[in-house]
Design goal:
By secondary structure, the chain is an all-alpha fold. About 80% of the residues lie in helices and about 0% in strands. The longest helix has 26 residues.
Length: about 230
């Protein structure tokens, strides 16, 4: 019994869940509107975007790196989609373009880090500035609304009582779990994060795998933009 409790206490997510339950309990007493279906649904919808970004950030951190550019890449992907739709492009193609923008920026990050031997902090900080600058120039610092039924459904629709963005989160984390636990690429990510030099000595294509890691992070930033 004690060993089981010890395992629960040592599990990394245990205390996060405990703190979350405590905060939820306190807030439910402070406001009668907190534990309502409408508020919880709204919270789930808002958290979904951050959760998708966090999945990409997680795989980068597991590889021993960091990606500071995901927020700006999300903005650039969203602006790319909005601009294409305003030009009359089909929303589905615009969504693919947004995903492509995110993936390409991830590739650039990975290429600079691996081929340019630049620390991930510096490379992704630079991409943060580039992506944010391009987004600012493209919009002129002005907010535009693009009310397209497809995106309205993805962002605000529900299925079986749950917001559709939640299903994107579930699918993202399920795929990430499979990749990291059941595929060679996932094992390589853990190995590289543990010791990059040893990974190279073991024959792991470190540069190639790191580029894929940052491309995944960029792709998920694009996916968060779609949501």
């Amino acid at each position: 019994m004690k060993s089981a409790l010890k395992k629960i206490q040592d599990y990394p997510l245990t205390w996060i869940v405990v703190v979350g339950l405590i905060l939820g309990t306190i807030l439910s007493f402070l406001s009668p509107y907190f534990l309502t279906v409408g508020n919880i649904t709204n919270l789930m919808k808002q958290v979904s975007i951050v959760a998708i970004l966090a999945a990409g950030q997680a795989i980068v951190i597991l590889s021993g790196g960091i990606d500071l550019s995901v927020g700006s890449v999300l903005a650039l992907s969203a602006i790319t989609m909005g601009w294409l739709i305003q030009q009359g492009v089909d929303p589905s193609l615009a969504a693919l373009a947004g995903l492509a923008v995110g993936t390409v920026t991830g590739f650039v990050n990975g290429f600079i880090i691996t081929r340019g031997k630049t620390p991930p902090f510096i490379a992704t900080l630079g991409m943060l500035g580039v992506a944010r600058g391009l987004a600012l120039v493209a919009t002129g610092g002005v907010s535009y609304q693009v009310l397209v039924p497809m995106f309205m459904t993805i962002g605000n629709g529900k299925f079986l009582g749950l917001p559709i963005p939640v299903y994107f989160v579930i699918a993202t984390y399920l795929v990430m779990y499979i990749v990291l636990t059941n595929m060679r690429f996932g094992r390589h990510v853990y190995a590289i994060g543990g010791d990059e030099r040893v990974s190279r000595l073991q024959g792991i294509p470190v540069d190639y795998q790191l580029i894929k890691v940052y491309m995944i992070s960029g792709f998920l930033a694009g996916l968060a933009a779609v949501v």
